[in-house]
Amino acid sequence: METKQFDEKAEKALAQLLEKFWVLRLEEPELYQMIREREKVLKRYVDDKLGFELIVHQHFIKLEKIPVEPKSWMGIQSFQEPRDYAMFCCALAFTENRSVDEQFLLSDVCEEIKDLYPGEFPLDWTNYNHRRSLVRVIKVLERLSILKSVEGEIDRFAMDAEQEVLYETTIYARYFMRSYPRDLFEYDTTDDILASEWERHEADERRKRVYRKLFISPVVHREAEDDPDFAYIRNFRNRLREDIEAHTQFRLEVFKNAAMLVADEKKQELTLFPDQKAIMDVALHVASYLRSQDIYQPDELGTIRMSRMALEQIVTNVRGIYGKGWSKHYRETSITGITNELIDLLQDWEMLEIEAVTHAYVIKPLFGRATGHYPKDFLASGDEAHEQTS
Q: Which top-level group of life is the source organism from (predicted)?
């Protein structure tokens, strides 16, 4: 049965498609079926508003999400080195050349990756760091259901290069890579790839750029006085708000220097700020502290610039005020360690940037929308209390 209405289930389906890399029929049959029943309305909406392709396959469903510009948080979070990505691509080439359900050993993967690896220096499986890279790569391939472990555990390979694991490829292996408008070898840079994406959206590029930014990124910041994307949001805010609220679980908020989609209720399938991680306490308290200090005044674009030393001093001051309510890790670890974790978090949420030339820390307007504090009696008595956030 196929519905022609963009109903509540279509809203839920769209949210899941935006969050997930793909929906596998064997693993999530109910979600797969719900999307199939709303395939036409979903395809029409994502194509018209975002210019995205919804791929519906008998084994999986995938929304091809191409950003306006790549961000660091869009990478594979478990990868730690550029080497991880290079090995990942080599592993994909290996799996694409295998038949579905074909079995092979980890040593076969190692040999092929070593031959394909494009790095200046060859891979050496006696090197612990190289083995750890491969472990991270294999775990991602398993999580994506591209590889399936039949016997053995990849973690043992990190400690012993002679360890074997038996794998088989899945039907999904040949569908991971997206198709490009032209042969991949015709592109010289990632910018060329992103630019080619707009060749078929020239007539309504601005609208689709704006929708992509709003739906994929945590925030759309006004980057200059004459930022055309932000001007579009300001000029058409009512139309955008009505459309987004009619088709999604989100609400559009527009301020002088920032626009974002917010969820009024916490939903398990969404990635939201703040979440339950202990570092969020630190972030919310730092945000509250910044709002209370007159010396940190934002510029015309709503940003605050400071040095690393100034940021560490802020973290020091904040721990002095709120620290007794923090988790043991953040009560005892070094200020440098806390600051590093805070920077990583804020960069992932596009609340902070580090200028390439000056290395200044730029606090973005979105961070000004967050604040957190304990009840007054908590600070006075030292009793346990829950975080109060807004």
A: Bacteria
